[in-house]
């Protein structure tokens, strides 16, 4: 199940931007876009086209599964800022808090207990921050 090879870079970018906004939120993407400069513009274009426009748009996995895989990969690599961003994204993609907890428990077995311990700490910070937001502001599931 691959993408249409006739898609242009512009199409991949447009589709990637739509998915990126659905998964991460308009506010997040708007901040990233506003922060672009001569040094980071090409990287932002790259991740929009390839990560979001080529991988996240593939039909082989749904967004919930992609979020589960992404959380696990970020734990394994120790990318905690990105992990926190993707905990929010996982909720937007329809994972429940209980499912996120299960992913973190699973990671304790296959990655390490210290990695899972750190993941729980970071996930709890995100969940606590979401709980502290005014009603109606928490990330809704993505459609």
From TrEMBL:
Keyword annotations: Lyase
* Pfam families listed in its UniProt record: CMD (PF02627)
Signal sequence span per UniProt?
Answer: none
Q: What is its EC number?
A: 4.1.1.44
Kindly give the Gene3D superfamilies that the UniProt entry links to this protein: AhpD-like
Please name the top-level EC class of this enzyme: lyase
Domain Carboxymuconolactone decarboxylase-like residue range list: 42-124
MF (Gene Ontology): 4-carboxymuconolactone decarboxylase activity; peroxiredoxin activity
Tell me where on the tree of life, at the top rank, the source sits: Bacteria
The family database entries (SUPFAM superfamilies) matched by this protein are listed as:
AhpD-like (SSF69118)
Question: Quick check: keyword Manganese in the entry?
Answer: no
What's the name of the protein?
4-carboxymuconolactone decarboxylase
